[in-house]
Amino acid sequence: MGWFNSFKIDLSKCRKVTGQELRKIIFRSDINRAYSYRIKTFDRDYYLPTKDQIDYIMNKCPSNIYTYRPEERDCDDFARIFRGYLSEKGYGNIALGLCTATSGSKSHAFILGVTNDNKIVFIEPQNDRKMDINEWIIDTLIF
User: CA 61, CA 128: separation in Å to the nearest integer?
Assistant: First the structure.
């Protein structure tokens, strides 16, 4: 189980940026350019992981061991478990933030990551896999 596995990220392979630089990278990306969304950063500095490190984190994170239950354990809970796991392991400053989005009348929460080469990655924490967000319009990002 992920909670008990050893977990180590070599931060020397990450690129360190300020919260302001992280926001600029995201705003300059091509995600949802036609829409306005908020980015909240709570720390001064963030570490942009490599793609391999993101794969490692997805493999180790235990969020996918839980069973989906409407309203009790749904998308926002899975996203918080994913982020909480990083914080619990001492890596709360990795640039993998909680993202909320809408599609018509539906809402969803997932993880948005920024890699060390400024690429944007979306992770579905319910199955710890990368996802496509074509149908989703981002509202808020929290790092």
Answer: 8
